[in-house]
Design a protein that fits this description.
The protein is of the alpha/beta class and about 375 residues long. It folds into three domains: about 90 residues, Chorismate Mutase Domain, subunit A; about 80 residues, Periplasmic binding protein-like II (D-Maltodextrin-Binding Protein, domain 2, 3-Layer(aba) Sandwich); about 90 residues, ACT domain (Alpha-Beta Plaits, 2-Layer Sandwich). Helices cover about 45% and strands about 25% of the residues. The chain has twelve helices and 15 strands. The strands form three sheets. Strands 1, 2, 3, 4, 5 and 11 form a six-stranded mixed sheet that branches. A five-stranded mixed sheet has the order 8-7-9-6-10. It has a four-stranded antiparallel sheet with strand order 13-14-12-15, sandwiched between helices. Strand 1, helix 4 and strand 2 form a beta-alpha-beta unit. The longest helix has about 45 residues. The protein starts with a helix and ends with a strand. It binds ligand ISJ. Ligand ISJ binds next to helix 1, helix 2 and helix 3. The site of the ligand C=C(O[C@@H]1C=C(C(=O)O)C=C[C@H]1O)C(=O)O has 11 residues, from helix 1, helix 2 and helix 3. It catalyses: chorismate = prephenate; prephenate + H(+) = 3-phenylpyruvate + CO2 + H2O.
């Protein structure tokens, strides 16, 4: 078939456009390489100042991403652009020092997804079997950072994580929020019309309860330790399906029978980045505290009054049973601001006078991505 004049025009045009893209790629390549070399210089400067230095700077990375999002002219949306820059920074940092991150495993969990979202794909991520193991690895210095879930918008707080902070010297260095999409997954061998058993983590069952009641009212729901574990089990049984996320589906080669079955479309989980580092101000920060109050009337009011007076914005308040005599009431409090902000420092001073004990778990940049 011969080209019509207009086809020839458009193919000439296509050739030109592709030439432009090649030229742009050459420029991007040169610029990324220059950026990487610059990051290596930064590493040398840091090393010359302090041999045991930490190369990773959470506050600086947050500033870089926020700046890119503010400058982004489109047509790519700002989150997409920030994700690209996230990966560039991750690769640059890996040149300085590959960052090691432990997370609540096994491989394929949402926590791994959160770890990679925060640190980028160049980070080395190591699965742990339980939340307290993630804490232990960080405390022992076996890894640079850890990632643990702390609250879900549908199911509430992850108590294991809060409890682990009570007996630990670990700091919070960052947060990351992940939209959680659950899918109904099957294997090639699954008889799709005969699904009589569904595996998943109890939290995921809870987040998909209405959908399951409507579509699989008679299937047996079998709770397992993780969504990744559920995905693995499906491979061995022709009458079973699993509820899990994209990473687990990819890892175990499963098919998405129905996508996004979570009851609430805004279902999301917040994860904490834990480490041994005190993070300087980034300009848009949050602080987490654990506070023990004596068991007396008005204790909670006394605790919150200085927050109100200093106009500090609380973002979360949780109560946990105490595990020692002194710690009658234990409150976990998140608020906007950094502990070095003068207003926050003044407020903390007053809270310290009223409480039996105050521990600043960390000030860290608000999640960017
Ligand atoms: C280059 C630096 O070190 C690391 C790499 C960064 C980057 O690639 O932009 C930013 C912060 C650090 O995690 C720096 O501190 O500026």
């Amino acid at each position: 078939m011969s080209d019509s004049p207009s086809n020839t025009d458009s193919s000439n045009n296509l050739d030109e456009l592709r030439e432009t893209i090649d030229q742009l790629d050459t420029d991007i390549l040169r610029l990324i390489s220059e950026r990487a070399a610059c990051a290596q210089h930064v590493a040398n400067v840091k090393l010359s100042r302090d041999k045991g230095t930490v190369f990773y700077r959470p506050e600086r990375e947050a500033q870089v991403l926020r700046r890119i999002m503010a400058l982004n002219p489109g047509p790519l949306d700002s989150e997409e652009m920030a994700r690209l820059f996230r990966e560039i920074m991750s690769a640059c940092l890996a040149l300085e020092q590959p960052i090691k991150v432990s997370y609540l495993g096994p491989e394929g969990t949402f926590t791994q997804q959160a770890a990679l979202k925060h640190f980028g794909e160049s980070a080395i991520s190591l699965p742990m079997a339980a939340i307290d193991e993630v804490f232990r690895e960080v405390e022992a210095g076996a890894v640079n950072y850890g990632v643990v879930p702390v609250e879900n918008s549908t199911e509430g707080v992850v108590n294991h994580t809060l409890d682990s902070f009570m007996d630990s010297s670990i700091r919070i260095c960052g947060e990351v929020v992940l939209r959680i999409h659950h899918h109904l997954l099957v294997a090639d061998t699954t008889r799709r019309d005969k699904v009589s058993r569904i595996y998943s983590h109890p939290q995921s069952f809870a987040q998909c309860r209405k959908w399951l009641d409507a579509h699989f009212p008679h299937a047996e729901r079998v709770p397992v330790a993780s969504n990744a574990e559920a995905a693995k089990l499906v491979k061995t049984e022709w009458h079973s399906a699993a509820i899990a996320g994209d990473m687990a589906a990819k890892l175990y080669g499963l098919t998405l029978l129905t996508e996004k079955i979570e009851d609430r479309p805004d279902n999301s989980t917040r994860f904490l980045i834990i480490g041994n580092q005190d993070v300087p101000r980034s300009g848009d920060d949050k602080t987490s505290l654990v506070v023990a109050m004596r068991n007396q009337p008005g204790a909670l009011h006394d605790l919150l009054e200085p927050f109100h007076r200093h106009q500090i914005d609380l973002t979360r308040l949780e109560t946990r049973p105490s595990r020692s005599g002194v710690w009658n009431y234990v409150f976990f409090i998140d608020f906007k601001g950094h502990h070095e902000d003068p207003q926050v420092a003044a407020m903390l001073e007053e809270v310290r006078l009223r409480a039996a004990e105050v521990k600043v778990l960390g000030s860290y940049p608000q999640g960017v991505l």
